[in-house]
Amino acid sequence: MTVDQLRSWITPPMLVSFAIFGTLPFWIREVGLYPYLGVEVLIFCIYALGYNVLLGYGGLPSFGHGAYFGIGAYAFGIAQLNVVSNLWLCLLAGILAAMLFGAVVALFISHRRGIYFALMTIAFGQMAFFIASKWTSVTKGEDGLLNIARLPVDFGFVSYPIQRNGDFYWFVFACFVVTVIVLWRVVHSPFGKVVQAIKQNEARTAFLGYNVVLYKGLVFALSCAVAGFAGALFAMAQGGAFVQVMNLQWSGVVVLMVLIGGGFVSFWGPVLGVVLYFIARDLLGAYTETWQLWFGLLFMLVVMYKPEGLAGIWQGIVHRKQRPRTSATVHLLAMLKAR
Amino acid sequence: MDLVHLLLPHLLNGVALGLLFALIALGFMLIIGVMEVINLAHGSLFALGAYFALSLMTPDGGLRLGIAQVLFDLPVGWRYVIVLLVAPVGVAIVGMGLEMCLRRTYGKDPLYGLLLTFGAALVLEELIRLAWGPTERFIPIPSAITGGIAIGDLIYSKYRFFASGFAILMIGLLWLFLEKTPYGALIKAGAHDSEMVRALGVNLTRLRLFVFGFGTALAAIAGIIMAPIWGIRPHVGVDAVVPAFVIIVLGGVGSFWGAVIAGLLVGMVVGLTGAFATDWSLISMYILLILVVTFRARGLLGKKSILEN
Amino acid sequence: MKIRITRRALLAGTAATAGVTAFAGPWKHNRVWAQKTDKPILIGLTHDASGQFANSGQDEQRGTIMAIEEINAKGGVLGRKLSYIVADTETTPSTATRIAERMINRNEVAFIVGAIQSGVANAIGQVAQKHGVVYFNTNSSSPTEAGKDCQRVKFVWDGTGANFANAAAANAVKTFGKKWLLLTNDYVWGHNTSKATRTTAVQYGADIVDEILVPVGTRDFSPILLKVQQARPDVVAAAVGGDDFKVMRQQTVDMKLDRKPAWLNNQQDWPDVYGLGIDSVFGVFGTTWYHKLDLPGVDDLVKKYQARWPDTRIDVPGNVFYNGYMAMHELAKAIERAGSTNNLKVIRALEGHKMSAKDRMQHGDAYIDPVSHHVQQTIYMAMGNDKPVDKTDYFKILSWASAEEAKDKNEATDCKLQPLDKTPSYEM
């Protein structure tokens, strides 16, 4: 594999993030924090990275994404408690359930944009919340679906237990690494380029012959699958699946994180946003209960004055010699010519 | 008991609800007409109206200034009237502030405007939660309009009738304003063709600001009237914006009577769901939204609208 | 592959790490206790201080804190003072999980006390059981708390919906009539409570004509009230809680439907009704305690409460405060009995423990059920007071049921406590 080929899979920022998160258990206590926080941060990073493929790259505003996160958590729990107690199969259940529901919703919304798209995602999100609260025989309602265990990482010939927070962290970190690499590839693939083109100008992309409805549906389902994956991990983290993550406020939180972090201009924006959110929560939250308000106001200011978010600020400061992001449609035309 | 007798009270309920929904929707629609973006925070302003009313009606609402005591000493009926006049003005000011924030997103990808109003909705809800607390609040209502009326062998809520009557009055006044006054004509023109209006020398910025304030004031009035029916809590805004949107889509953007008729329809759906499956009545609005957008996104009249931007 | 690490990047990296380490944050704990016996016993207080149950959460906190102060004034427990940290669960289970993890792993609490919403209590209970930390659930009243969601480390101090249903139903059939209509808040607590009401009422001869589901968040009760009128029952047994109940109450009283039929409500929490005026109290309901019970010690407690909390708008203590207060005192006593803060010893000291009516300031004895870890206690039935002696005298106590009469028989079969030898040992 040449250097360039390797670079298209693993990039320096990736290595930095792996280094920081990979060493977290060793320094987290020294700064007065605790490993469970690291688990939460990584899970939300996975959630946010998947969400950003939809919002930052696709330009599609989903305000009800908490539903898929929650479905992933419940599916994992139901699979574990009623079907089979195998880590891989249960994770798969979480991913598939969320992706399936996402695909159904996509049928209704893929040919829409803007406000219709947004409101429909809110409506479906509220419905999922309602059903989860009401279907108590399956979800146990507001009591929560309890006794979800952290199943051992079983490769057949060797099995690692991940009950303790420390061990569980490493598993979540591995999931993070896989997610980052997979999503990076997706975003830089022809599929990813089409999605970005749709964001820039849907009509033109359609004129180029692409089935934009299909692409929108696929990217939506993908982001739901990733959300489901994160949700399943969260179910293991909490030991249970609870309905609150599916409400409108929690669906909104991921939007805030992704945008403030700079999801519109950078793959890593969501990670920055997640970290900022958790720092704000644990730091400011210790002093004041109004920190959520400040975070929301920050979001509004970012949308008004600096939609490129934290990543945009970072890019501005570092003055990286970056190839300007040429219009995605130009990329597409180039690809077509190259065929 | 035959079906009609069983359903009639629920239908009446639905009509009352529908008229109030229509009022919310009309305010929403006015704004859509002259603006480029849909205001997802409209519901939060609906809620804010109710909360402002709470603060002005009773010291329980948090206003502990000495001068306010003069207000609280007035009889309930007087206070109620004052509140209906003053609270919407306060909300209009907040609404206009929001419009000024939105200006930075004009001309850009409409996605930004959408995100901004979504953020505004969350921020407003959080502000309300911090200022007034997360639990249910109640506004004192003049006793003349509370209590029950016996019709036949059932007792109906007197307040419903008052609310319906008030909504009819407001809808009528609004129609008069739009049809019979020059400013109303301006708003209608602006909704129809904003470029032309600007070309004719009208200050579009000022028009938008005014319309935004006016539309949100209508939402606030609806919020105050609906408070005894829907309750006052921070999250009530979300439940208000969804039927408004459904009504606009059903009735067609820009159609006054379309909105009124659609409002009645939506209200009756919710009311009748309450008759058969009470547990589904709250979620029926969301289901209705999904159905309407899926099958009739161009409204009953099938016209393409700004919503499809 | 050549990765160029520029000097700038390296410097930036070092600076960042240094900065992060230097910033200790407000939670840097120090482990410099010379002897174990110097170290205070740290209690983690997990109250739902914001969210739907904020009023009750704050009242509960007043109870636990006042008890801690009283215990410390008498010299503490086993020669050690009690100290506490408070965290708001935001009535959200995922927040509660995180708080519990943090309290145990970082703050190293010895015990956890608090919670009202059952999802929150369950979340905390799971984390506590995982680590072995004894957890006192002070105010959740879901019948599943001490049923299928019981834990070896968890102890439940409030009456559940089933207790109140059992206490009320028998008398109500005799007093008001046989035709019953159930109003069920559409969530787990509502369903379980209505189920218990149905079983007990039918046992005493009632005929359930209909059950209407009330979705959580209902504010418009007119369709439901219309249906109630159309059904013409003798008794409406409402398992409706929280804000939904407050709105239902207001609209029912507004339409003057509260006299006939008879309304049988479940538990009425004091913070939810105090301040709204005595006429806002409607129907017949239950409570675990009332500040005007004619028992020794009650007046003193009221005076102590008013002296300690003069600024709160809830002028007198109610059941929510009482549950928190009692639970904390019993925790201290259990530690004394066990002679240690080791969780397994404390659990053994609690199981089966009897508390006299005098200590409880209730009319009957109470005890900690060893099978379910539920405190079986006296349940009072009350209604709105038509002859109040002062502005705080909202309730008129009608009768009371003993712990045995009110006990939920299903707990014995539903609850499967984890064995003691499978529960991790934990001592702080």
Structure explained in plain terms:
The complex is a heterotrimer of chains A (339), B (309) and C (428). Chain A has one domain (3-247). With 339 residues, chain A is mainly alpha-helical. Chain A has helices at residues 3-7, 12-22, 24-27, 35-57, 66-83, 87-109, 114-134, 136-139, 165-187, 190-200, 202-207, 212-238, 248-261, 269-287, 291-305, 309-318, 328-338; strands spanning 153-154, 159-160. By secondary structure, chain B is mainly α. Helices cover 72% and strands 3% of the residues of chain B. Chain B has twelve helices and two strands, in the order H-H-H-H-H-E-E-H-H-H-H-H-H-H. Chain B has a two-stranded antiparallel sheet with strand order 1-2. In chain B, helix 1 packs across helix 10 (236-251) and helix 1 (3-34) runs antiparallel to helix 11 (256-276). Chain C has 15 helices and 15 strands. Chain C has helices at 7-22, 54-73, 93-107, 118-131, 161-176, 188-203, 222-231, 242-254, 270-273, 298-308, 319-338, 343-350, 357-360, 403-406, 410-414, and strands at residues 41-47, 82-88, 111-113, 134-137, 154-156, 179-185, 207-214, 235-239, 262-267, 284-287, 354-355, 366-368, 375-376, 379-384, 395-401. In chain C, helix 6 (188-203) links the parallel strand 6 and strand 7. The N and C termini of chain C lie far apart (51 Å). Chains in contact: A-B, A-C, B-C.
